[in-house]
Fold each of these.
Amino acid sequence: MPTSTATQLTPHKAVRLIFEYEGDTVRLISQQDVEMAVTGFDMPGVDHPGYYVDTRDAAGATLARVAAHGAFVGSAEVFPERAGEPITRVDVPTPKGAFTVIVPVADNANRIAVVKIARGAAAPAPGTRDAGVAAAAPAVAQDIASFPLTSKGQPTDSGGTK
Amino acid sequence: MSTSDGSVLGNAQIFGSAPRSRAFNVVMLADGFTSAQQNDFNNACAAFVTAFTATPPFDELRPAINIFRVNVSSTDSGADDPVATGGTGATARTYFDSTFGTNGIRRLLTCNNTTALTVAAAQIPEFTVSIVVVNSTVYGGSGGSVGTYSLATGATEIAIHEMGHTAFALADEYPYYAGGSETGHDHHPATEPTEPNVTINTNRATLKWNWAVAAATAVPTMSNPSCGTVDSRPSPVPTGTVGLFEGAHYYHCGGFRPEYDCKMRNLGVPFCRICRQVIWNRIGPLATLPGRNRTPINVVARFPEHLDVFAVANDGRTMSNWWDASSGWAGWFHVSGGIASPGNAGSPVTAVARYAGHLDLFTVGTDNRVYSCFWDRASGWSGWFTIGNQTCRPGSTVNVVSRYSDHLDLFTTAADGKVVSTWWDARSGWGTWFQISGGVAAAGATVTAIARYPFHLDVFTVGTDNRVYSCWWDERSGWSSWFPVGNQSCRPDSTVSVVARFKDQLDLFTTAADGKIVSTWWNARSGWGSWFPVSGGVASAGSPVTAIARYSNHLDLFVIGTDNRIYSTWWHDTTGWAGWFNVSGGVGKPGGQVAAISRVTEHIDLYTVGSDGLVYSTWWDGSGGWAGWFALGVT
């Protein structure tokens, strides 16, 4: 669109977080400002069971929730050396490792939380059309760690950023 | 063995040229390569680039992919390989401390993930996934937040499979946990997996990948006759057929996968259609959207700090993007495969939010039937399903009104031009389609509807004599007859836009036969007014007039003009109609549409397809006026 005032949106402020975990113990290793777009894929807006990282405001309200893929995995994959042999899994007695997420940071964000979401007691059958506002049982969210947000993301120009 | 056993030498971009802030950035880290062996690592990275970028759908997504290598020298060559797990007993002082034999299994090759992530972030802060390449020809690898693989033949497949988990949240599609001889894995638990590529649902209508299943494909496509074992029979359908194949997600029965084979089931085979779609929806949103030139865009504000935008890509697929005040724009993604709305002319996707945690979408599919899908905060996106068997005009618009949160009313035009409607109620489900009071619309005309209050509907269209017609429904009296609204002659493909500034007032806008933008009104006390031209404006042929009311005494209009520039005007009760003005220099497509929404009274958001075919947006704010147009993507 050729316009006389075309403005490209500047990226939303974001922070990369690296966590280390062993069992249920989580440690925040680093916070790093990063100029990076976070897509809806990582912010599904749906409370599917799994692990997430929230940004929160001073009142504790969640501002953004990003999926923590690859975190707290309780098994490991073993790959076959020869074609045709099965991939298998083995249990990991005590999950241990690290994971990273990039979270968008709103101006009023001041804490981050690692959240575990468990399935509600009576989740709807897959794909069934809801029968109203009360159809789906809520998932159960539990904070497993919380940290102050010390990084505030990249400074942005005033123009173009919503 | 730690970071004292080597040093980071630096990094180099070895593939891609996408802006790092809007790209899928892969970082490859060297472990067990001495200073003198860095060229071996470089060669391994080059081989990975060749394999990865030739793998569908990454081959199509190359413009959004960058690959970097981080050269790291280690004191020793190779990795630890304990004797206890069948290894050589080698111990190697390496930077990332890679070792075979994790969990007692020699092929399970792992490294220090914290160190790997920290180095990746320091070298390439925008990285998406990190992969450690270990200098050993012993076969091995592992997944998790850091992919690890060795230089053994075929080990790059491990990295790509693990990327399926880490970057795309895909499930394993293999039907066993420990190769098939394990116990406790005969039947999948009766809980639907959250991953997009496995399911326990055998209902074709509600299957989450139903958009990809051909009508002629049996569902289930393949069932396991003996749940005590893995079904090892060959596929009954040609390779690439999407259906429902039993045996997935670590269980012999009860869990289903979309295709007979997939890279999430076996190494060395392509990703299935569903996994390719998921990967597309992770990387594709980093780009802007080439939109279909004249297909209307729809926008919904489920709450004031959130917008959901729906558009049709130039290939006819249904797309969505959303904005949240806390996180910005999420990027364009295909809605449940995005295939429901190609049509010939391109049916728009209409959307309604009955409540803040729910969206209902409607469109007309390639078979000219009405399709719907929904998003719910509790369950995510549903698959597409048809609403009855009504056949519509190709490219028809399905307009939807939610009079209250448990009810929907739909309006569209049948193949023969009849104005038809149906409804959905939480208590009774979908009704049957019916013709409204014998009404027939002109070719190309849309049917618009509005609920001024919960038990009343007003419906508008352009009739076969090219005049504007209306009828209404009231809970007490049912449907009225159609009546002409004045004597205004319109373009036959006109849309009649209607706004209720308050419940006893309607304002109508459309385009006359000569393209002039005209309006009339209805008031409960004074009845219908006369049609009048709005400030002398003329629309591009086929361009609808978009109207919003930010207050009860204020209207804002938007249209594409005859010079294809984007124009606006407003009406205020104390000052009347303003002159038309060009919005921030914006230029649209001939016959295009401008979508507008006011999520708060002193704010307007606009969307249109620009002259270069991309979807653009701008906004007006009472404190700052109009912003510049920007190509809508991800922020």
Note: Residues 38-53 of chain B form the longest helix (16 residues).
Amino acid sequence: MDRSFNGKSLRLMKLFSLTFAACLLGINLQAKTIQLTMQHMEQPPSRVEAMQVVVDKFNAKYPQYRMKQNVVGWGEAYSRVTAQVEAGVGVDLQQAIPGFFTAIRQTGGVQPATEIFNKVAKEVKFIGAYVDQYRADGEIWAIPAFGMLELLMYNKKHFEEAGIPHPPKTTEEVLAAAKKLTIPSKGQYGFALPASDTLAGTQSIYTWMGAFGGKKIFDDNCKPIVNNPQNISAYTFLKELAKYSPPDIGSYAWAEVEGAIVSGKASMITFKNAFMNSWINDSGLTANDLGAAPIPVPSDVSGERFSLSYSNAFMVMTDDPEKQEGISKFMAFWLSPEIYGEWLGTSEPGLFLPVTDNAKTNRIMFSAPVLSKFKKQHQMSLDEAPYTGMYGFMQNNYCPAVGQFEGQNFTAKAMEKMVVEDISPKEAVQYLEELMLNVD
Amino acid sequence: MTQNDFRNSEARLGLYLILPAVVLVILVVILPIISGIQISFTSQRVVGSEYEMVGLKNYLDLFGDKNFIASLGRSAVWVIANGLFQTVISLLIALLINQPFRGQNFVRTWILLPWAVPAAVTAILWRWMFDATSGIINTSMMSLGVLEKPLLFLANPEIAGISLTFVNSWRYVPFLTIIFLASLASVPEEEYEAAKVDGAGLWLQFKSITFPNLLPTLTVLGLVGTLWASNVFDIIWMMTRGGPGVSTTTVPVLMYDTAFYGYNISKASAGAIIFLLLLIIFAIVFIFLNRKQFILANETFKDLSK
């Protein structure tokens, strides 16, 4: 028995005790770590990877926090988030777009974020337009993270072949170019207009409504005001444009629109700069062959330079002050020039626009491998940012009906009805207003 | 142990064995239905948001809602079209591959493949094939000169429903075929031999022997198939989202859109409850009218399980 307590055994026991103590200490330190979860809907692998880089760097810099990302698809976001709020197991930070925010806010699970916003705003300078989409009842409800806007994207090779010297500046020029570029025997169409009941349709059609001067959809009392001459003109234009689009645009969503321009099936689209990687890899063309231009306007004075822009932001879902402190640190870290610039350049090159005004961020962003090839196109997005807006956020009052306007794709439904059932633009706009009036 | 004790212990064991399934059904079917009924009497818009009790308002609104009434009609057309198409095709295939031929086992096994393919994959696959300008169907037909212009399988409201019926049938026909094959196996061979001796042709054999023997299975499939087809949502949503226009908006699609894109969970719940009641009424009437066939089917399945 005595032999079991010889020097070797004692050393082993000491080692065991020290290991045990270290484990306990580790558990204690672990207990002090504040867990944070962000949930977003940017599912493509490159976006998840780029976000993980930010998260890892944050966790390394702030060991008292342990941030993790949770990814869900847009299709299931609403049901997932409402269920999480209902079950009381929600995440701490939740991605939102304005329409989605209006719906989720009704659950009572979204915390006012003004205080956190102010802390972050001490570190970075936000572009006001991206913040305004989340102001309601005297509070800011989400921290902007990135913007998106639509441009007229076009295939320069097709334009050269058709002898069209420059991108259209007016809607009349769009129709003329689309007509000239439509060669069905070659499987080539002038435009790929998503005339379907999808968010792609909603965004594209609203962009044109805005260009024709119909960007305001509610008055200050939240009464729908879409049945107006500007929108009738917009729908007249769209009906004409549909003639120069592939025949099955009634079933087009984002993937089909992107596929159409990349494959050469369409010569023009209104789209976000979201497909630079696939353009390089799949179009057989160079970055210089992709044109980007502001959304054309009618040649008379009725329209205005305009495009739809989205502010993607993060809602604060936790009321725990310690976690909220962690969130303000995380957002300030993410939006800091080096981290943000790198993330913007690599996550989905071209799609995500900075919501902060910082030259260093832009410099780093533009030096990213893919984006450096598409400087002109991406710069066009940045230049257009001041001339953009979001449906339902241009009146003095906050109108919750915008959730349904977006969720049920009212503008796209009217467009689809006009194309499929061959009703007049006037009837389509009347139908659009009817849909809006029927919102309870 | 007496025979009664044995029976009691056997019954208790049976009860214990089905208990987990019963609990599961209560948790994932019965409770959500009860919750749905409760929500349908409220004004709740978003799950978890505040609400008031509104009595039958949602139900009355729906009965006055032409979109809802139209979607009921489309659901009925969808069920009948799918039911007829799938039954006829699967029965024909079953009769065909019930004949002895080389590779019969291989065909019988691999015919199930479309049924095993996830709905999302099926939807993407057929969307590609249906594409107007680059889909294999249109490009082949046009290059062969069969078509001058592409057929808009999913973008034309007059064709979209047919296209969806075809895709949905493509998924379910293999499963129905296997059911018919199992049922055909229970038809006594002697009856065919006697018929042949009497000089009966193929049609007469089918009419007098095969069809009467398959009738109990057909009746059960008529009920189960109707309930399945009524609730199909995935393929429709992923391929057309109820469009173009509302041409493929059946009740499940409309209710999903109302709940999760129209942010009106209470109205959607009321619609779902109405639809559920209609299906229950249909099932009761159907079983009552075909009670004899259901008894026969029960006996057939018992024989098969032996």
Note: Residues 7-32 of chain A form the longest helix (26 residues).
